[in-house]
Amino acid sequence: MAPKNSERSKTDRLRQALAHETAKLIVAEGVRDFNRAKLKASERLGKSQHGSLTSNFEIEQAITSFQKTFIPDHQQKLTAERCVALITMGWLQDYAPFLVGPVLEGTAGINTPISIHVSCDSVEDIIGILQNKNIELKFAERRLKLNNEFVFLPTISFEYQDHEIDVLVFSLRQQHQLPKSKSQNRSMQRINLKGLKELLAD
To answer: What's the start-to-end Cα distance of the chain, in Å?
Structure first.
């Protein structure tokens, strides 16, 4: 019985080490993709074949712990990011804006962009509003999973008050289809303009 307990303890320690190293990569080094961060953490620890041991939920817990320990002003930075999100969502209030991702979930690290979803059948409408703010825009497409199918959505990226912002544009037909979270096997959390105001007020 003892060898089994010893093996389980060794596995638990490995899971914790992988979760901590992955959290460090995400928060301190700006690696945005969980799977890429897990792979890199496994390679650093010389345990490349064990990357799947650590769940994304365990990594999120490790991120929270890492932030509390090594980034004492994390909450202030998070509040500043959410305030910038509020301003941007105010510009786009006619297009059902939602804040999503690490800035909402509280797991944002260095260089993590503020992610906002809007719904509009004319991307040009969104571009026009942002161009009127004298902001330099970049355009791309983002691959997301909606209703068990992968789709490519137009993405508008820009900087405002030293924060990077990504605006993903859903069609009106897609606006009620919640994409899957990259960090957990569930629908992505999101919050609207009113909800964000209430969150900041708290």
So the answer is: 51
